[in-house]
User: Which sequence fits this backbone?
């Protein structure tokens, strides 16, 4: 597979998985490790559809990430992945989770993306 397809798929699946996990936790009332009834809480989470879907997305993203790691340098891949995923999750969170988006955050994402472009050329 081509680099762009793998990287885009990885970003889309990991970012989408994060939003699904957050949505599922919101629907189910959250989860705290070590709380009384942790097994019951895990079962409740497993029955909340966005959580298994989010975990599945993460699993598929990991497979794509492993393929990318086997072919490219980590110092090139990681900043590209993190900045792309950050921008994607910011947009998804704003649209689907109704999280706030400020002009300062948008400027930060733009500067981050510009920095990645510059770093990738060097």
Assistant:
């Amino acid at each position: 597979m081509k680099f762009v397809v793998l990287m885009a798929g990885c970003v889309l699946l990991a970012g989408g998985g994060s939003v699904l996990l957050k949505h599922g936790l919101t629907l189910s009332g959250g989860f705290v490790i070590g709380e009384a009834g942790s097994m019951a809480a895990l079962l409740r989470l497993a029955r909340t559809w966005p959580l298994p879907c989010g975990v599945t997305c993460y699993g598929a993203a990991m497979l794509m990430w492993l393929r990318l790691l086997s072919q490219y340098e980590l110092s090139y891949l990681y900043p590209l992945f993190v900045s792309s995923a950050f921008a994607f999750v910011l947009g998804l969170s704003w649209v689907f989770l109704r999280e706030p988006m400020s002009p300062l955050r948008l400027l930060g994402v733009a500067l981050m993306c510009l920095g990645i472009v510059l770093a990738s050329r060097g």
